[in-house]
Amino acid sequence: MLHKTGIVGAGGVGCIHAAILAKDSRVKLQSFFDIEAARAQTMASRFGGHAARSIEELLQECDAVFVCTPNTTHEQVAMKVLEAGKHVFCEKPFALNLDSATRLRDRAVRSGVIYQVGHNRRFAPVYKVLKQAIESNELLPLSVHAKMNRGELVNPPWVWNASLTGGFLYETPVHMFDLMTFFFGKVEWVEVSARSHEHGELDDFSILLCFQSGLQATMKTYAHASWHFPFERFEVYGMHSTYETFEMERISFTKGLESQTTTYDFSLASMHEKWGYIEEDRLFVDALEGKSAAPVTADDGYNVVELIETCYQSAREGTRVSSGALVRKY
Length: 330
Description:
six-stranded parallel sheet; 11 helices; single chain; globular
C-alpha cells in the first residue's frame, strides 16, 4: 500500500523532503500546500500530486503529512494534522516555548499516530560513527566541547527576527542541543553567559552544561562568524582518546597514547545523505509500515525545547539553572 503523503510548506526544506520521498517506492506524494499558492504548484509540477487550496483539503487526501513551515507555525499546523488523525513528520524545532511543547507533546501522545521530529543530524554519518563509539564503549566521554555558529543573520531575510524564529537558539543551534541529549543523556543544570550584537536579540552564547552522569560540556554558539569551516564541531574526550567532527564532512579519532589518527571522510556523499535527511525520511516511512517506532519522538522534541528554555533563563538571570526548574513566563 502506498502511503499518501502531503507536504505543508513549499520552501527549501520542504523541497528536500519531497525530493527524497519521490524516490521511495512506498510513498505517493499526493498533495502540497503553501500560503504562496505558486510555490505549492511548482512543487506539484516537479514531484507529481497537486497543489491543495487549504490545509484542510490536503488533510482529506493524505495519510501522513510533513510540516515544513516556519518555526512559529509548527504547533498550529501539527495540531491540525493530529486532530485529523494523520501521521506527522514535523521539522525542528518541536515548539518555541515550554507551554507550547507541553500541549503538543501531550496531544501527540494521546493521538496514537506516528509523530517524528526532524532532528536530522542524528542520522548524519559522522554523528552515527560518534554515537556507535559511545554505545559500544569504545569511547567513554569524560569531557566535551562543541560549537555551532551561523555565518550571518541575513539569509533568509527573516532569520534575525525572533518573533518568527523563536530566538537564535531555535535556529541552527537547535541541532547541537538535540545531539547533546542524544549522545550524553539528561542535563542536570546549565550556566549561560550571552549578549547581543545586532537586532537587540541574544546572538552570542557561552554555555556550560552538566549532565546527570556528571559529564560536563562547553558549547559556543555565535550568529555572525562567517561560514568559516567548520562552523559545526564536536570534540569529545575520553581517557587518552579524542573524537572530533568537522561539520558533516568527516570525523577523526585517536585512541591510546601512541595510536594513529583515523579519519572517516563523507565529503563526497550527497548533502541529503551526509546531513541525515535520507535516513530520517526512510525511518519515518518504516514507522508508517510498522517496521519500527519513530526514531525522534515528541518526547525528544520536548526535551530539546526544555533545554533551550533553560539556557535562555540562565542567560537572562545570570545564574545556574537546573533542568526542571524553569519559570514559565508565557
